[in-house]
Specification:
alpha+beta; globular; Nonspecific Lipid-transfer Protein, Chain A; 5 strands; about 110 residues; about 25% strand; 5-stranded mixed beta sheet
Length: about 110
């Protein structure tokens, strides 16, 4: 599925995935703050323990992820590898980097 904006992904797609498979989301086990810069971006909090996603910064988080809106869409579409984006400094991770690797499954469409 091609997303039109990061906001569309966080408002529509991600909540649907969490609702369809909450136990799988809980296994990730963390609170993430996404700072998406640029058109269609914003700040979003993903609590995989609840599981829920909401607009706005996290009160308490395990990991903050910063990325540009265009790069985020490329990541979702599978045209940008998260490790390559991290190495190129297009993707910045603060906090528990190991936990952030568990998001691969949730952000990609496989199995959700």
């Amino acid at each position: 599925m091609e997303h039109t904006s990061p906001a569309q992904f966080f408002r529509d797609t991600l909540p649907e995935r969490l609702a369809r498979n909450p136990d799988r989301a809980r296994k990730i086990g963390g609170v993430f703050e996404f700072v998406i810069e640029g058109d269609g971006g914003g700040v979003w909090t993903l609590d995989t323990q609840a599981p829920q996603v909401q607009e706005g910064p996290a009160v308490k988080m395990n990991c903050r992820i910063r990325i540009g809106a265009a790069d985020f869409l490329e990541l979702l579409a599978g045209r940008l590898n998260e490790m390559a984006a991290f190495s190129a400094r297009k993707l910045k991770v603060e906090g528990n980097i190991a936990l952030s690797l568990k998001l691969r499954d949730l952000l990609g469409a496989a199995g959700w």
